[in-house]
Amino acid sequence: MDKNLAIGIDLGTTNSAIAVWLDGKATLIPNSLGQFLTPSVVSIDEHHHILVGEAAYSRLITKPLQTASAFKRFLGTEKTYPLGETTYTPTELCAMILKSLKSDAEEYLKQPVRDVVISVPAYFNDQQRKEVRQAAELAGLDAVRLINEPTAACLAYSLHETHDRRFLVFDLGGGTFDVTVVEYQDSFIEVRASTGDNRLGGEDFTAALVDAVMAKLNISADSLAPAELSKIVQACETAKKRTSAEVSVALPEPWAQSVCFTTQELLDIWQETLNRLSFPIRQALNDARISPDEIEELIFVGGATRLKEVQQMATRLIGRFGQISLDPDLVVALGAATQAACRLRDEAVEEIVLTDVCPFSLGIASNREGQHGVFSPIIERNTVIPASRVERFYTIHDEQDVVRIAVYQGERVWVAENVLIDEFEVDVNPAAAGSESLDVRFSYDINGLLEVDVTVVSTGKTIQKVIDRTPAGMSDADKLSSRHRLEKLKFHPRDALPNITLMEKLNRLYEEKLAEERHWIEQMILHFSRMLETQDDHKIKTLRDQIESDLKASGL
Ligand code: AMP
Predict the structure, then answer these.
(1) Ligand 1 mean position to 238 CA, how many Å?
(2) Does a structural domain hold residue 250?
(3) Among 437, 461, 489, which residue terminates a domain?
(4) How far apart are CA 281 and CA 331, in angstroms?
(5) The CATH number of the domain where 378 resides is what?
(6) Would you state the pLDDT for residue 64?
(7) 203, 329, 330, 334, best to mutate for ligand 1 pocket (most atoms within 8 Å of CB)
(8) What is the pLDDT of residues 319-347, one digit of tens each?
């Protein structure tokens, strides 16, 4: 087997695609029908054969009870799909799509395919990511890396960029919406913030249109057979992809008529769905701490960004026009293959360094103001990874001799509403409440390895716990190299040489100067100290550069 094949897969809610890095560029692989997009649809025929892609898509209308679509939306849930005599999980259905893509690629490349990079919505939680890896395993693939879809899109776009800029990737697929703020600088791609809604996509626009058609015809969904409902959905899906301003839904038998909506009626039908687009955008800009006018490029990804109303809404929210110079349906697969090539260090992409963010806050349960079970985030949502952060916690009872460390993921103030990842106990010396303290350090890397180091401050004794959140996919060698990388991160930024150097210089200047100049230096010291406490390397570097240039401008 050729281990050096760099393959990327976009496992989409509606369509999937596979690409390979060949001769210095990402190339799409056609399926057996010669198409680059394979519908993410599975159907079981009368002979219990599994049909995938276009063949299954056609059966959405004729055999809706034997056919499943949009199942990627339900990864990480208990939902199952009874198709014919067998019931399938979303993971198994995803595995069938992946298997079909694998065989298309093997046919095209004339060699076995195993290692792949698979894209997932940035907002997918741990369980959903785990199930994507499991699906790959079931398909005979090894998902050596999962890449966030918008990050993949950016990677594909960045190859065509020659100058530094800040992007907002607006990715509206069939069932998920992702907003990502990405900075491209000196061949570094840094994801600054990633947010989204994994229950919002092009299908919601179709569903709103279906409701409007049924209201206009005065029919209720309950009165329709599944095949009839499918026909209306298909007619609305086709009508939605129109080129004109109005929409005309051509209904087949038994209705055999067209239902038309004007531009204004359509806006009313879709207003609620369009409004849902604004919250993740505001959150992403807020998390990245930038204003809309600091975005230099708006990139549209995902089939549903072809909707004129969606583009108008995005343009209004960001204040600039978006670009679709690469096919929004295929750009993610191209980016995933590019990432696969980065892993293999292909010459053409060696220059590009990719950083990502942790899409969830990670922290521990603590007691605050007499309240139990309060979440204390240590690595906050949208922190650039790999990252290492430390926080200090104190004992709460007199003579307490053990502290329970419960690690959670989530955004809720009460840990009970977040996801428990692991828990363990640490022995401490019995003493008066609050006199014993623990430094809890989280180190999280791009492959999902979370390392927790708890140091008992009075004794210096450290207990380490490695939480591997990627059960399938990471080899022992990968884990070792990942841990090695984390090891390098484990120092507080205040101990980093450029920060020590600047602080030393400021202290020296404070000693030297008097009056107004001294006050100015004091402000800088206080500001820089506060920034060091955030442990955010990016922000620290920005402020350090700013202070250095201010000092230089003042001849200091
Ligand atoms: P994806 O998951 O990225 O493949 O996106 C598929 C979604 O894009 C589906 O909801 C499609 O209905 C929608 N879509 C594809 N083409 C168009 C189009 N020309 N106009 C509007 N929506 C489209």
Answers:
(1) 10
(2) no
(3) 489
(4) 21
(5) 2.60.34.10
(6) 87
(7) 329
(8) 888 777 788 999 999 999 998 988 776 65
